[in-house]
């Protein structure tokens, strides 16, 4: 496959081969732009009344569109195939694409944003670059079939309209995350009908719901924490550990570290396993530092109440919740407890266990884990079940960590699908 080097776009006269792109999200728009620049006659079908709705919501409206560190360790999916994809269209190619269109870029701890910190900048650029692409809005695709004589694709929309004569089709309908933006899982139905297996889907980059009622008392508190996800069985198994700003909610836990392990937690619970998270509220304090802190505190306990004994360790709401959970009262005098009891109270700061109930729903998720089986597509993202059909974006069984990785996958897979669809469509027409 041709590398993107200087983006590898081949200037050709439009109108050679016809390509349909289904879905105008990040991946579909990139696929359409690439296919049109490669000489294809491209039509995008989008069920919403406008393109790129989800892009505007990304990065809290600032759009974290990529990351400086694009190691494939930040992704879930077939490693070899992912490596081949990122070798074809890398983070640098993404930067080049947006910078060539005039966008200045800002970096924050490796995460890349438009200088304007407005997601609308990214969307405006994509829309401008789609100048050679036909767009059908409010056009929900309900069926893809083939003309038996010509082998070309026919696209049927919800309104009953049929459009025929497509040499290639790119499915870029997204997954199930944030269905209000248009991605409601309908793409999986289309892929299934074309013969594809769908790897079970779960919400990812999402909050976790917990069984523990005590969380209500600390709802709204944010603090630095280390969170360890365990599968609970005969012997607890550590699955993943993350550090960062944790947010307590009245139903569970949220924040970046929770998002980062939510995928693994969601699959554990999908498989009917028990899962728990152990929260260390003093992540920077380990070993001898922690022991010394405990000794100091025990020495200074004197006539303090338990509330006074914990004062200064962390958020007041957390202190009060831990005292209550231990079965004590904030006004109890510390001296009335043995050293072991006080040490156990302090230890709950490093060892707060919450029992997971479920991942929050797709409505709240940033991405979808699972999707069209990656082993059923080529490195060029063409279907092995239905030649001429290509996939891009979240619809595939690929998902990344928080930090710009999912949009980067949309750009990379969109470019590859667009490039190869155009190659096939144009070759077919030339015969
Ligand atoms: C709140 C939020 C914040 C996020 N922030 C970031 C971030 O900062 N950085 C990052 O990397 N990732 C982020 N993500 C994830 C990222 O936005 C997605 O992974 C990415 O946009 C997926 O692109 P896509 O093109 O595959 O799918 P989508 O963007 O979901 O686009 C699919 C499109 O297809 C259309 N469609 C679906 N079915 C049909 C049909 N049958 N016919 C016609 N059209 C159809 C939909 O209407 C939609 O427009 C965020 C996600 C959310 C929800």
Q: How would you characterize this protein structure?
A:
The chain is an alpha+beta fold and 431 residues long. It folds into two domains: 17-202 and 365-430, FAD/NAD(P)-binding domain (3-Layer(bba) Sandwich), CATH 3.50.50; 207-360, Helicase, Ruva Protein, domain 3, CATH 1.10.8. 30% of the residues lie in helices and 25% in strands. The protein is built from eleven helices and 21 strands. The strands form six sheets. Strands 13-16-15-14-17-18 form a six-stranded antiparallel beta barrel. Helix 1 (26-37) runs parallel beside helix 4 and helix 1 (26-37) runs parallel beside helix 11. The longest helix is centred in the last third of the chain and has 26 residues, at 405-430. It is elongated, with a radius of gyration of 26 Å. The structure holds flavin-adenine dinucleotide. The site of flavin-adenine dinucleotide (FAD) has 39 residues, from helix 1, helix 5 and helix 11. Flavin-adenine dinucleotide is lined by residues 22-28, 45-48, 53-54, 57-59, 63-64, 140-141, 172-174, 177-178, 181-183, 186-187, 366-367, 393-394, 404-407, 410.
Could you name the key traits of this structure?
431 residues, alpha+beta, FAD/NAD(P)-binding domain, Helicase, Ruva Protein, domain 3, 2 domains, six-stranded antiparallel barrel, 21 strands, binds flavin-adenine dinucleotide
CATH class of the largest domain reads: Alpha Beta
The strand line-up of the biggest sheet is 13-16-15-14-17-18
SS element count, helices: 11
Query: What does the radius of gyration come to?
Result: 26 Å
Kindly, what is the distance between the CA atoms of the first and last residues, rounded to a whole number of angstroms? 20 Å
Quaternary form: single chain
Task: Bin the strand percentage.
Answer: 25-35%
The total count of strands amounts to 21
Low-confidence stretches: 5-15
- Tally of structural domains: 2
Shape: elongated
Main sheet attributes: strand count, strand direction, barrel closure: 6 strands, antiparallel, barrel
Query: What is the percent of helical residues?
Result: 25-40%
Please identify which CATH superfamily of the largest domain we are dealing with: FAD/NAD(P)-binding domain
């Amino acid at each position: 496959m041709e590398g993107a080097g200087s983006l590898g776009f081949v200037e050709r006269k439009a109108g050679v081969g016809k390509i349909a792109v289904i879905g105008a999200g990040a991946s579909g728009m990139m696929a359409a732009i690439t296919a049109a620049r490669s000489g294809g006659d491209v039509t995008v079908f989008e069920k919403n009344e406008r393109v790129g709705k989800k892009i505007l919501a990304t990065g809290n409206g600032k759009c974290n569109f990529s990351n400086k560190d694009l190691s494939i360790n930040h992704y879930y999916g077939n490693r070899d195939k992912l490596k081949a994809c990122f070798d074809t269209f890398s983070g640098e190619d993404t930067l080049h694409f947006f910078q060539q269109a005039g966008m200045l870029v800002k970096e924050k701890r490796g995460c890349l944003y438009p200088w304007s910190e407005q997601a609308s900048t990214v969307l405006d650029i994509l829309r401008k670059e789609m100048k050679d692409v036909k767009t059908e809005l409010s056009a929900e695709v309900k069926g893809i079939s083939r003309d038996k004589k010509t082998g070309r694709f026919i696209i049927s929309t919800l309104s009953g309209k049929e459009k025929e004569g497509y040499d290639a089709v790119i499915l870029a309908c997204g997954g199930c995350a944030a269905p209000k933006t248009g991605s409601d899982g309908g793409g999986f139905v289309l892929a299934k009908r074309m013969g594809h297996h769908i790897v079970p889907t779960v919400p990812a980059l999402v909050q976790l719901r917990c069984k523990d009622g005590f969380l209500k008392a600390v709802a709204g508190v944010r603090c630095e924490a280390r969170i360890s996800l365990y599968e609970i069985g005969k012997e607890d198994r550590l699955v993943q550990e993350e550090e960062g700003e944790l947010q307590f909610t009245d139903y569970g836990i949220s924040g970046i570290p929770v998002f980062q392990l939510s995928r693994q937690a969601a699959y554990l619970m999908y498989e009917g396993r028990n899962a728990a998270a152990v929260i260390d509220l003093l992540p920077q304090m380990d070993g001898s530092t922690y022991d010394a802190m405990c000794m100091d505190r025990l020495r200074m306990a004197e006539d303090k109440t338990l509330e006074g004994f914990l004062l200064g360790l962390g958020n007041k709401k957390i202190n009060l919740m831990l005292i209550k959970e231990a079965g004590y009262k904030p006004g109890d005098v510390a001296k009335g407890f043995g050293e072991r009891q006080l040490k156990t109270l302090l230890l709950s700061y490093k060892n707060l266990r919450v029992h997971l109930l479920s991942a929050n729903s797709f409505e709240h998720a940033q991405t979808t884990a699972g999707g069209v089986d990656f082993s059923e597509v080529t490195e060029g993202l063409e279907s092995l079940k239905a030649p001429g059909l290509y996939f891009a974006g979240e619809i595939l069984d690929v998902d990344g960590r928080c930090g710009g990785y999912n949009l980067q996958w949309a750009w990379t897979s969109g470019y590859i699908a667009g490039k190869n669809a155009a190659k096939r469509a144009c070759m077919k027409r030339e015969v």
